[in-house]
Design a protein that fits this description.
This protein is of the alpha/beta class. Helices cover 44% and strands 15% of the residues. The chain contains 15 helices and 13 strands. A seven-stranded mixed sheet has the order 2-8-7-6-5-3-4, with helices on both faces. The longest helix has 25 residues. It binds pyridoxal-5'-phosphate. Pyridoxal-5'-phosphate binds next to helix 6.
Length: 385
């Protein structure tokens, strides 16, 4: 038999799957997986349910329902002051994952280079490679996750087609600061490159921080493709509704990719997300405040246990250094240990790097009910306390 595509079949079982299976086997509280255990707003879900009943349930327009594209454009204006033409510059996708794939397949020519910043969300590298680009990796590492100017400059060349930027960043919970965004913008101009901006956590920033899309920097509107996700903004990760905002010339190529892959996204969900994006500020502020309270809860508990907790500026995730607990092993061994011995599962941060020495940090997901977070902390206290 002829082999399947070697790039994709080369990816074996991930450590995420291994840990999740181990968690099920041991009845462990799984703080490895990144999804909320409470569904998002009832009114948004009601709009989806009603639209399913009333229809139509046939193929919606390829670029997305006009009302959702208008809502995405209005959201861009309301939160970031971006002037966006909903007809030419917005496209709806089946989740941010599809949006990422569309952007990368739509832009990359085999032989192009793509700059990626480790730690990497898991789908980035396989898609970049499958699209034919040569990945140029730069890393930020805990505890400060600082982007090094020289390293980033060295990763860019005249072959650079794009950078993939995830801010707020999973798993680092880092929000890229003004200097870092300015540096990226400078390099994009210098090398005539694009930025695919994964901004799915745009509404989950803490301590009064506000999200600043790279697209809002001078000269960047024509170079950036900004991706959002209703899954994260409305705690409805199973819906898989995403949206891309980009200059019309860029979006045209990206739309081809979408056209030949999914073509559309369920119309009732699009309708509901359009309704959700128009919700008042109290909703969006409340989402960040709720997640911040959960962050504070788990951070305090982990600190009490002796972990060194790394600054968490946004997202669903918090990173902790377990060395002060005296555990003698790497992060994968630590995650196995707490799964089997305490009944709590986390994921090793080394899994987000291709190689290297970041091997004593673990990521806990905290978008869970307070009772579950408390229970996980109690279990860890029984083991380490
Ligand atoms: C950084 C990042 N990008 C994209 C996604 C996927 O988003 P969606 O579920 O909308 O495809 C996730 C989900 O965890 C994520 O953390």
């Amino acid at each position: 038999m002829k082999p399947a595509n070697s790039i994709l079949s080369g990816y074996g079982t991930t450590v995420f799957e291994v840990m999740s299976r181990l968690a099920i086997e041991h009845g462990s509280i799984n703080l490895g997986q990144g999804f909320p255990d409470e569904d998002g707003p009832a009114d948004v879900r009601r709009v989806a349910a009603e639209a399913l009943e009333s229809g139509p349930n046939q193929y919606p327009p390829m670029m997305g329902l006009p009302e959702l594209r208008q809502a995405v454009a209005a959201h861009n204006k309301r939160f970031y002051g971006l002037e966006v033409d909903w007809q030419g510059q917005v496209m709806v996708t089946s989740g941010a994952t599809e949006a990422l794939a569309d952007c990368l397949f739509g832009l990359i020519e085999p032989g192009d280079e793509a700059v990626l910043i480790e730690p990497l969300y898991d789908c980035y590298l396989p898609i970049v490679r499958r699209a034919g680009a040569i990945p140029r990796l730069v890393r930020v590492t805990p505890p400060d996750w600082r982007l090094d100017r020289r390293a980033l400059e060295a990763a860019f060349s005249d072959k650079t087609k794009l950078i993939l930027l995830n801010s707020p960043m999973n798993p680092a919970a880092k929000v890229f600061g003004p200097d870092e965004l300015a540096l990226i913008a400078e390099l994009l101009e210098r090398h005539d490159a694009y930025a695919v901006c994964d901004e799915v956590y745009e509404h989950i920033l803490f301590d009064g921080r506000r999200h600043v899309p790279l697209m809002t920097l001078p000269g960047m509107a024509k170079r950036c493709l900004r991706i959002g996700s209703a899954g994260k903004s409305f705690s409805l990760t199973g819906w898989k509704v995403g949206y891309v905002t980009a200059a019309a010339e860029l979006l045209a190529s990206v739309a081809k990719s979408h056209q030949f892959v999914t073509f559309t996204t369920p119309p009732n969900l699009q309708k509901a997300v359009a309704f959700g994006l128009a919700k008042d500020d109290a909703y969006f502020d409340g989402l960040a405040a709720d997640m911040q309270a959960k962050r504070d809860r788990i951070a305090a508990g982990l600190k009490r246990l002796g972990f060194t907790v790394i600054d968490c500026q946004g997202t669903y995730f918090i990173t902790a250094d377990f060395r002060p607990l005296g555990f003698d092993g790497d992060d994968v061994a630590f995650c196995r240990h707490i799964t089997t011995e305490a009944g709590v599962t986390a994921v090793p941060v080394s899994a987000f790097y291709q190689s290297g020495d970041v091997d004593h940090f673990v990521r806990f997901c905290f978008c869970k009910k307070d009772e579950l977070l408390d229970q996980a902390l109690e279990r860890l206290t029984r083991l380490f306390g």
